[in-house]
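Input (structure):
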């Protein structure tokens, strides 16, 4: 450890449970954060500042004005330039701690790429906003034997837990697939303090694991409501005997058919369609300028305002967001018209 690093992390190393040896372990650690929105920006900020050696984060979206109320790594210029969240976060974090390797990935975490995204990491942290992806992470982590730090926040409420394969129950032991739909930040709102609190609890469990302090693990599912000042801790018990993930080892989220990769993003008037092939954005910009009202191209994405009133956002990895509708049939019709099914 260099003199500069000793100075940077001096206060953290004075905390006896971490110390010098714990700091060295952090610097040798590698983590993956899936989702760089409200929770993800707080997770990444804390872990990079703490000196975790390698932090990879993946996000499929770009920065919008409504994000700035709670997503701490973004600013108005990111909104103006429609910068993908993974890129904006990578830029900010690289300036915060140049000794940490940060890697932003513009992609949707799916069963097709999750193994590659998790390659070489010691821990996976949940910064997502939907249970479809959380179940995917849960199943992939338990298949690979990698701990999964769950977190969720909406309104003034939040939950967090760390699930460790072979030692604790998994997310499916607490929440069934049929219970995954519910309130979202886009339908009932969210206050930023609950985001910071939940993510901070996630980071604390992550730090305990990375420095080897297993005796300090919380071993519970924690729920908090900061507006009503409620807190409840559900201590871990035995896993559910019929759990398809941690007991039967079926890993359903990894086995389901991909289908035509069409997903309605609840509460956002957006449908995501995965084409299955990468886009040449310059080529598509030239094509769509002939038929659309307004086409804006950045190095990372293409935004198109259609004559019908909806918008298309094309990403290099082959994803298309159809914005302005939650009707999957309508979205597929527009996609077919302008992109081709």
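Output (sequence):
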């Amino acid at each position: 450890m260099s003199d500069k690093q000793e100075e940077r992390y001096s206060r953290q190393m004075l905390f006896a449970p971490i110390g010098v040896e714990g700091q060295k372990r952090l610097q040798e650690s590698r983590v993956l954060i899936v989702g760089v929105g409200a929770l993800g920006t707080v997770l990444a900020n804390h872990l990079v500042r703490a000196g975790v050696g390698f932090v990879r984060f993946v996000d499929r979206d770009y920065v919008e004005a409504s994000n700035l109320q709670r997503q701490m790594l973004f600013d108005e210029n990111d909104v103006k330039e429609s910068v993908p969240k993974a890129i904006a976060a990578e830029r900010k974090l690289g300036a915060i701690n140049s000794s940490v390797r940060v890697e932003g990935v513009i992609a949707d975490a799916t069963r097709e790429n999750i193994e590659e995204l998790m390659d070489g990491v010691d821990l996976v942290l949940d910064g997502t906003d939907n249970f479809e992806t959380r179940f995917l992470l849960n199943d992939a982590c338990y298949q690979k034997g990698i701990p999964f730090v769950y977190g969720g926040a909406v309104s003034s409420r939040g939950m967090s837990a760390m699930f460790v394969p072979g030692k604790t129950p998994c997310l499916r032991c607490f929440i069934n697939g049929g219970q995954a739909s519910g309130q979202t930040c886009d339908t009932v709102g969210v206050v930023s303090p609950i985001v910071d609190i939940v993510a901070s609890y996630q980071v604390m469990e992550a730090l305990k694991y990375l420095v080897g302090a297993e005796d300090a693990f919380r071993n519970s599912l924690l729920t908090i409501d900061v507006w009503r000042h409620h807190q409840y801790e559900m201590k871990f018990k035995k896993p559910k005997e019929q759990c398809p993930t941690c007991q039967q080892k079926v890993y359903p989220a990894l086995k389901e058919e991909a289908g035509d990769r069409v997903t309605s993003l609840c509460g956002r008037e957006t449908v995501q369609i995965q084409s299955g092939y990468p886009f040449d954005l310059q080529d598509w910009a030239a094509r769509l300028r002939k038929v659309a009202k307004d086409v804006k191209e950045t190095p990372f994405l293409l935004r198109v305002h259609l004559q019908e009133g909806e918008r298309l956002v094309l990403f290099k990895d082959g994803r298309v967001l159809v914005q302005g509708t939650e009707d999957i049939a309508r979205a597929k019709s527009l996609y077919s018209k302008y992109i081709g099914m």
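Notes: The longest helix spans residues 192-211. The mean pLDDT is 92.
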